[in-house]
Write a structure and sequence with these properties.
alpha+beta, 2 domains, 5-stranded antiparallel sheet
Amino acid sequence: MKSKLSAWTYVKNNKRTVAVLVTALALSFMAMYAVYVLLITTTESFETVMVEMPKKVSYASLGGRAYGLKGDDYATYEELKAAYNKKQAELIENLKKHPGIEDAFYTQIIDSTYQAVMGAYSFEMPLMEPEQVQPFLDHVGAKLIRGSMPKDAGDVLVDEVIMKNGGYEVGDWFQKSWYGETFRIVGVIQSKCMVSLGVPNGYTNNGFYIVVCNDETATDLTGILQENGIVLGDGDKVWDAKTYYAAYRADVGDTIDMVVTTLFVIVMTFLAILVLVAYVSFMRNRIKEYCLYSSIGYGRGEIYGMMLREMSILFGLGAVIGLLLSLGTAYLLNVMVIEPKGLIGHVIYGGHIQRILGTYVFLMGVLQIPVLIGLNRIKTIDAIED
């Protein structure tokens, strides 16, 4: 009675060849996972400032036409400006009365920058009088964890994540390359929405905005403004939950998804070609062995079963070792690269692990083609002489 063909026999007797194939599979797994970990930190990091922050703070920059004002209706610029200020003051008072809005005020804005693995994002940083700082911090759920509260012109509080990301220390000039020696960091704050703020210093800013302190029930500032008779034009800017999220999906989420998918397809195609070439060579070197099995009474089905079990062992070992290497690499990337730069990342991404494992299953399916071709070449011991 014939014994069952063992899949482990070749593995144990050809450790070098097996090691090369398993190593290639494991390193491919690790490469696909490491690239994903680095790229996805951009999406996860920007989510805080582009999705979470607008749940607490929204911004609007409105021109005269938004209030229904036309320059031709006024004899002088001073009259037009007075009318504009009156309309704006009325709007701010109406916003304060709106459910879900705690406060609204008109102030100067500078930009705070957050640098990720792929690109950087600049977002609004309001400037306000010292007496407004603590109420604003209370609204966004932020607290001072280092340094002091701003008192003088140009004093700023910066979120701890932005401090890491920009390599700042308390006492440094904030965004010196943009604003020169205008804004000095006097304190570090901690919040869930990565907010930063400061005190104006002259007219060094990126514009004047209405700052709205809202909760999650009043995040549609565009709709609220329209309810108050504001007609938004091309020159008007509103940054609320809706506009921020649209920018997040278009500039970050969709872009990163496209890059990840493109790189994944490229790596998968390259891996498929390499594995296919390597496995065909692997089988050619064993065709005499398969013919010998056929000559001593093993059917093609039994030989095919052995080949599938060997393939499963190779891919299984490659997947297990690759997964361990991937998790180790992801941990090191988080500790040495991601966290020190104030970025947000994780070690385990279950969805991507499943995607890579699915790729392995796909490759095993592709390899059935050379396997079936090889089976057709199996005859008897006579084939050894061919």
